[in-house]
Design goal:
21% strand; alpha+beta; 4 helices; single chain; 7 strands; two-stranded antiparallel ribbon; 198 residues; three-stranded antiparallel sheet
């Protein structure tokens, strides 16, 4: 049965090949893209990246059907995925053996954020942290050095730590007749503080 260390051996070959490209001046930026569409009636967000699809949805208390993780949850998952991947890259590069690797990410998002009386509460996910569970015969010093290398080199971790400038534009395609957002089957009303679907 193969183990994580078998994979690290393969990863090392890929890491060395990529580093050789950089050193030779033959590396170039990779363009990244994602497309997200809202599905009719359910409002589910379908994320398309290359040949892959991911579904994002809201819990029932926010007019969702719980068909997938919410955007803030996905963000935590993306952070955990990237931290895990960079641990593997750095371990392969440094030849640090790893028997098991798991990253737990936690955070908070508060629906009161930015509302009157709660202006000090962020509208974005906050109080984010992660814990790495690693089983390895390596020394504590080697694992600490590995961790520091991950903190320095993880793209998504550093994306979240550092302020970003994000370009944005809207392309409005006017339709012939605007449909009412509340009518018939899709009507939503609030009764006794509970959102109900008609």
């Amino acid at each position: 049965m193969t183990s994580l260390n078998h994979y690290l051996s393969e990863k090392r070959s890929a890491v060395l090949a990529r580093e050789a490209l950089v050193e030779a001046g033959n590396a170039s930026p990779n363009s990244l893209s994602a497309k997200v569409s809202a599905e009719g009636r359910s409002g589910v967000r379908r994320i398309r990246i290359r040949d892959h699809q991911v579904i994002s949805d809201s819990p029932p208390d926010f007019a969702g059907y719980n068909l997938g993780p919410s955007s803030p949850e996905l963000q935590l998952g993306v952070l955990g995925s990237c931290v895990t991947h960079i641990f593997l890259i750095q371990a392969a590069s440094r030849q640090v053996p790893i028997d098991r690797l798991e990253v737990e990410v936690s955070g908070k998002i508060d629906p009161r954020g930015g509302k009157p009386g709660y202006e000090s509460i962020p509208i974005w996910p906050h109080d984010i942290g992660y814990t790495v569970h690693i089983d390895s015969p390596a020394s504590a010093e080697d694992v600490q050095a590995l961790f520091e290398a991950v903190e320095k080199n993880c793209p998504i971790l550093n994306l979240l730590k550092n302020p970003q400038t994000i370009r944005a534009e809207i392309r409005h395609h006017k339709t012939n007749e605007a449909a009412s957002p509340i009518e018939g089957e899709s009507a939503i009303t609030a009764a006794d503080g509970v959102v109900q679907k008609k």
